[in-house]
Amino acid sequence: MHNYRPAQVLEALGVCCEDEQLYRALLARPEATTTELVADTGWPTARVARHLRSLLTLGLASRTPGRPARFTPAVPEAAVELLALRKQAAIVQARLGASVLTEEFRAKRDAGPFTVISGAAAIAQRFYQAQQSAQSEVLILDKPPYAVLPIEPRRAYGVTYRTIYDMAALGNPAELAAARSAGTSCRMLREVPLKLVVADRRTGLLQTGQEVIELGPSSLLDALLKLFELLWQQATPLTPVSADGPLSVEDQQLLSLAAAGLTDQAIARRIGVAQRTVERRMQRILRALDATTRFQAGLRAGQRGLL
């Protein structure tokens, strides 16, 4: 393990790179002691101990009684299911937080540090100005319907984009491919709770229906930034399409939707095909990835940067 670092596949579930490396080490040596893990990883004892505590908290490992203490890895499929359930609970909590923030905006917009912008032309101009003035970072929560066209990333040196797309915003393979190739850091969420653009963490544009509320530095903007970061941790990464991968763009879209928890019937409605077509394509995906289950296919696609 000293030189080999396998692709991280649990990042979307909130597991950091080093936690996952240690979990893999435990899978390779069940019931290992701290000393054995130090030898396997080449890490200092304090570092191994710190990440063991993290694995215990995440439910990815358990400690056996007796001396010396030994650590057993959780069965991967059960552990991932538990992490996914926690992720879903966090998303529900984030949506509740978004509802509270929206009510605060509506209650205080006449008295607070807000400017209300109406009209498609004025809204489009303000979105354009906000991204043109950005010096370091633009954060976007993107969901339909659109009062104006979605923001196109500005190719400016030093300006980074992080975008969380609602799955409804990626309704066809072309949109999914465009999101992946836009040069931005993109993630996907089953339901994005609101539409938001924040430039340099100082200017926020919150779209509510046919109006946009602009706000400067304030406690409400701070709360929206915290909401964005929470959603970012829960969202599924959209990585660039691998040119030499075994899956087509359409196959990757199907597997991404399945990984987000949609049933075959829901996927069929989303992409506009028959359910039987989805089932056939899923079988082809399993063969292409040499997988026997969808869970295994998801892991292998993640390892290859295809999901």
From TrEMBL:
The family database entries (SUPFAM superfamilies) matched by this protein are listed as: C-terminal effector domain of the bipartite response regulators, Winged helix' DNA-binding domain
Q: By its UniProt entry, which InterPro entries does this protein fall under?
A: Sig_transdc_resp-reg_C-effctor, TrmB-like, Tscrpt_reg_LuxR_C, Tscrpt_reg_TrmB_N, WH-like_DNA-bd_sf, WH_DNA-bd_sf
- Read off the SMART domains from this record: HTH_LUXR
Q: Where is the HTH luxR-type domain?
A: 240-305
Q: Which PROSITE patterns has this protein been placed in?
A: HTH_LUXR_2 (PS50043)
Note the PANTHER family from the entry: HTH-TYPE TRANSCRIPTIONAL REGULATOR TRMBL2
What's the protein here called? LuxR family transcriptional regulator
- Source organism (scientific name): Kribbella alba
